[in-house]
Amino acid sequence: MNSQIRNPRVIVVGSGRSGTSSIGRILHEEMHIRMGRYLKPGDALNPEGYYEDLISHALVRGMVSGDNSIYNPRTYLEIMNDLNGYVAWGVKDPWFLLLPPAWQKALTPDLCMIATRSLEKTVNSWLKVWRSSVNATSVDNPPRSVIDHYTRLTLDRNERANRLYDVWPNIVTIDFTERVSDEEIKTAIRAGLSAASHQK
Questions:
Q1: In terms of CB atoms within 10 Å, which end of the chain has fewer, N or C?
Q2: Pick from 39, 37, 63: nearest CA to 51
Q3: What is the reported pLDDT for 87?
């Protein structure tokens, strides 16, 4: 990794329930790119962990809320660089997709990794989250309104992710519709970091 680009910043996005945690795990555990100091712990739905930094998430939500006096890209980068000791670091958060393009551009990641998955599999995974939240059993049929909500959410975030190609110069997409091995994820990350080094 170090031979490709020194201390890269990596942003991982996706619709949610699309494979972003797998990318975060490989970055954090295998590629020595720290995904945060205060990581959201795993649970029954994501036993290996979310690899989502709680401080980063709070800051990104603040930026989305529009309180520019406290939350803005410059402050975000200063805090994250300070927390991570100015070494290689990454962040994973679908809320980055909700930021205006000018703010996305100001974050200037060396590499953006986008996790995608088929609409059907993504929505079905979201429905597992819904069932867990309402203590429903796996055989319960969710209301049509719930299915429609997660369908619209996934389509919206996928569209927002596609717009990032107009904002950030170095993007690598991994499709998790079918099983993706750890080695395939690492290969995709290495390719992205190599491309980033040539853009410097």
A1: C
A2: 39
A3: 87
Q: What is the pTM of this model?
A: 0.93
Is there a domain that residue 110 lies in? yes
C-alpha distance across the termini of the chain, in Å = 15
φ/ψ (deg, to 5) at 89: -150, 160
Whether 140 maps to a domain, the answer reads yes
Angstrom distance (rounded) from CA 39 to CA 49:
8
Number of domains in the chain: 1
Q: What is the pLDDT of residue 86?
A: 75
Q: Helices 119-133 and 144-163: crossing angle, nearest 10°?
A: 130
DSSP state of 10: E
Per-10-residue mean pLDDT, the chain, length 200: 73 97 97 94 94 96 84 93 88 96 95 98 94 73 93 98 97 98 98 87
Give the C-alpha distances (Å, rounded to integers) separating 98 from 39, 45, 103, 127, 163. 21, 24, 10, 22, 11
CATH number at residue 103: 3.40.50
Comparing CA positions, the residue from 17, 18, 34, 118 lying closest to residue 84 is: 34
* Length of the chain measured in residues: 200
| Domain assignment of residue 113, given as a range | 9-190
SS3 188: helix
**196 belongs to a structural domain:** no
Pairing of strands 9-14, 89-92: parallel
- Per-residue confidence (pLDDT) for residue 2, from 0 to 100: 43
In a domain, 199, yes or no: no
